[in-house]
Structure formats: C-alpha cells, structure tokens
Specification:
By secondary structure, the protein is of the alpha/beta class. It is built from 14 helices and 28 strands. It has a 7-stranded mixed beta sheet, with helices on both faces. Helix 13 links the parallel strand 22 (420-424) and strand 23 (442-445). Helix 2 (74-90) runs antiparallel to helix 4, helix 4 runs parallel beside helix 5 and helix 4 (107-132) packs across helix 14. It is globular. It catalyses: D-glyceraldehyde 3-phosphate + NADP(+) + H2O = (2R)-3-phosphoglycerate + NADPH + 2 H(+). It is found in: Cytoplasm. This is NADP-dependent glyceraldehyde-3-phosphate dehydrogenase.
Amino acid sequence: MGEKGVFEDIIEGDTFKYYSEGEWKVSASGKYVPIINPTTRNMQFKVQACTQEEVNKVMESAKSAQKLWAKTPLWKRAELLHKAAAILKDHKKPIADCLVKEIAKAAKDAASEVVRSGDLVSYCAEEGVRVLGEGKFLVSDSFPGNERTKYCLTSKIPLGVVLAIPPFNYPVNLSVSKIAPALIAGNSLVLKPPTQGAVSALHMIHCFHLAGFPKGVISCVTGKGSEIGDFLTMHPGVNCISFTGGDTGIAISKKAGMIPLQMELGGKDACIILEDADLDLASSSIVKGGFSYSGQRCTAVKVVLVMQSIADSLVTKVNEKLGKLTVGPPENNCDITPVVTESSANFIEGLVMDAKNKGATFCQEYKRKDNLIWPLLIDNVKPDMRIAWEEPFGPVLPVIRISSVEEGIHHCNASNFGLQGCIFTKDINKAILISDAMETGTVQINSAPARGPDHFPFQGLKDSGIGSQGVTNSINMMTKIKSTVINLPTPSYTMG
C-alpha cells in the first residue's frame, strides 16, 4: 500500500510509522488507526495509534532539539527549508496519489496542492531571513522626561515547541503553512495530522527528513483523538498551538494553557450580489467558490445573498454552469468528488432535508450515492432553515433573496462565523462601504472567497478563529520579542 523506493522507510507491513527523534517508528501500542477511502468506503491505509508515553518522549525530544536548533544560523535554517521544498516538489506524484485516496481530492488539484506547498516553504524561508534578520534599536530620550541614557535592542526569538494540527481538506498545504514558519523562527515542531490525510502528511514529513533537519526538530504523531488529542493540546511541553479545523478548536482554546494560539475554525462565507453586478462573473465565481473540492473548503461560498430584482437571472446562470460540472471519482479529475466521510454526507443530507421540509426550492433533484453528493443549489432559503446558518462543507449552496443591502449585511453579521465574505458590484464606493460593515476577517470584491496567495493575511473574526495566518504573520506569531537594555552612566548623543 505504501510507495516503494524513497518512501519505503515510512511503512512497515501495511501500517505507516510515526516520526520521532529523526526516525520512523512503530508504536508500542500494537494498534492502528484505519483510514477509509471516501470513494470506495473501504480501508485504504493504516497509521500508528501512538500512546501518551510516546507523545511524552516526542515532546522531550522536541524541547531538547529546539535549544540547539535556535542556535543554528538563520541562513542554514533557510537552506534546509529550500532543500525540503525541492524534495517535496520532486515527489509530488506519490503524495498527490495519497491525497486522491485519502480525501478524494481530484488528481490535478492534489498535485497542485503539493507544488503550492513547496512554493510556500521556499517563500517562508526567504521571508524569514528578512523578518528575523533585523531588530529594533530604541533610545530613551524619545519618551518625555528622559535623557539618552538607555539603548534598547530588540529581536525576535522562538517560542519553543509548536504543536501543529492541520485539517483533512489540505493536509499537506496547511501542514507546511505551520511547519515552515515555526522552523525558520527557530522553534521545533510536533505535527498531529488529521486521520483523513495522515498518510499524505507522513509522506510530506519524510521530505523534511530527507532534507537533513536535525533529530527532534520535527516530529509527527498519529493516533486517535480520543486517546492523545487532549493530551497533546494540554501538554506542558507545548509552547504554541496552530490549529485549523472545526469547532474542536474552541474546545482546545478553552483547555490550552497560557500559550499563543493560532486558530482558523471555519466560516459561513456570504456572497452579496448587488443589482449592478456582472452576473456572468458572479455566477462563475459562485460555482467555483461554492463547489470546488465539493465545497469542502473553509473559504467556500456558503450562502448567496442576492437582490430580489436580479435573483432569477443569477440563479439561471448558476444553474447553467452547475449542469456542466462533472461528478465522479477523484481519479477521473471530476469537479465533484465524494465528501470525506459518511458522517459528513449524512450531516449535509440533514441540512438538505430540513430546507426541503421548510419549503425551499430545489434547483436540481437531490441525488446521493454513498459519500458522493451531486451539486445542488437551494433557492428561496429562509432564516428559519438550518442551511442558512450552518456550514455544510459539501456541494450544496443556499440562496437567500434580499430586498436591501442592509438585509444582506445583517444576515452576514448575524452569523457566529466571520471568516470571509465577498461582494459583487461595479461601484467600488459601495463595495468599500459594505466591506467595512461586514464582520469578517477578509472581504473579496468581485471574486469568491479564497485563502491565498499564501503570503496574504488570513484570519477570522468571532467563532472563525484567533490570530492571523499568512507567511509573515505566522512567523511573527511564532516568535516573541526579547529586549536588551544598555544603561549608560551619562547621557550620550550621536553628533552628526
């Protein structure tokens, strides 16, 4: 089941190993966690079910290794990251193959994720050299009442051990978006990949291993969340947590100690369509934004809020484009592929049936086979329907007809989420005013919500998260300021 050749060290028998102290290891538990192929619904892979004692050893190793890693010259850290990025891109096919089998991502999109991830690691290496390569010099007489008797030198120093927990939908890209900033900043990193996506992540970790990072600087533990989840997030050896996922993150934030948190927890991204919008552009963006990767994206369009006067025209155009989407297995590069688990499909179906029972208009016949759900646009959705507020994470999109811009803004802001939103209009002045009124971390004007390019800031308000991502923001978040103050016996002023 594993890739031969370069990846043969990461698997023993039919079970993938975990990574600790620079070695691939088999858990003493003797247990494994099954990974189910969303398309076949059969077991595709097995990963180690690590124990709490093994987590303790990983944390001890990470803490010890970090002290030496922090003393590694910045240029050397960057050099190793560039090397890892090149290895990652060189081996995109076996990693992409895992993504296809684990999370039913279309083959072309899986390959793109790996390449994008390599580019992110390289960019982070370069940005880290710039961001971390300079500090500040302050003088005391800039504050009232002081002579120039103090020089303050500030620099950015690592936090220690960073725990990274990525989601299933981008298990490679949203792993390296945490790994690379942590490592360039001089931290060590422990990765707990999602169950669906774990094998892709293990292949990615092996690329960092092949690059030659010191033992203990990077670790990867797999296992059941019920057994090691809280143990990891509450571990006293963790100095920072970067998490992307669902409302599990809220529970983590309540249990974690006094450490920095970087959280992205999903969204109900609203798409507001004004009367002067380019409906061809808007409909294309809605289909791409709402249905790519079967809607399993935090930044997918999750609700369309369209002015009543143009709603019929917009819905017609969206339906025409939905009819052209291909549906089927990811190996065939279909537009709509199976959602990640049967429980996810059941949840989506629950939202669909609730809308149907409450009188919504189905623009297509609801169709499902196992985990595969055909694309569905639901018109005339009302606020009493669950799908108006809940995040389906599937190829199902509600349309709410509004009578005013204010009504659209109100619906957007009434959500407990606040990740992204978008506006379609030809009036830039209106767009800016609406953008300012929307309580979301990002607003896209005349384009669907999106995370990226990866150096752009990415953040959510309310239940959508804590802190900000993006390469520079992540580097800064994974460091803290250290000040050294030189006290002079008498005031000293540099003369020109």
